[in-house]
Amino acid sequence: MATKVLKVGKNRVWVDPEKTDEVESAITNEEIRKLIHEKTIRKIPEKGVSRARARVLHEKKRRGRKRGPGSRVGSQNARVAKKEAWMSKVRALRENLREMKDKHVITESVYRQLYVKVKTGSFESVSDLQRYLEAHNLRRKR
After folding, report:
1. Does residue 142 carry a pLDDT above 80?
2. What's the DSSP call for residue 53?
3. Is residue 67 part of a domain?
4. Structural domain containing residue 37
5. In a domain? residue 49
6. Positive or negative CA dihedral for 116, 122, 126, 130?
7. pTM given for the model
8. What is 56-96 written as a DSSP string?
9. 82-102 helix and 126-135 helix, angle to the nearest 10 degrees
10. Mean pLDDT score, 101-122
11. What share of the chain in percent tops pLDDT 70?
């Protein structure tokens, strides 16, 4: 009867072990409600799934841990889309070119020549662009 009054399953009803005879003698819903009010019968709270471990894991991943090759699922293109990777690379290269042009490290003509090379995908990274500048002596002489 207590399960119906509390609207829970039989495993979630707690009965005070010292007052079992009182509970056994209760035969009406009103008597059960009275025992619930007196806290002789209680509803056991639901067990949830703790997020503590998930929070710890998230914090570690945020700090760059647990992201090695053994933890990866999916190809490189699944983790970072080809287009997204291209956009971030090209933006970084163009920004670097613009800064060098503004600081007069390279001339306008060299800037334009390199800009087109960036667009065609000639450079892997900003450091690759810098190596190219050094190798071809394209920096402006002071």
Report:
1. no
2. H
3. no
4. 2-43
5. no
6. negative
7. 0.59
8. HHHHHHHTT-S-SGGG--S-HHHHS-HHHHHHHHHHHHHHH
9. 50
10. 96
11. 99
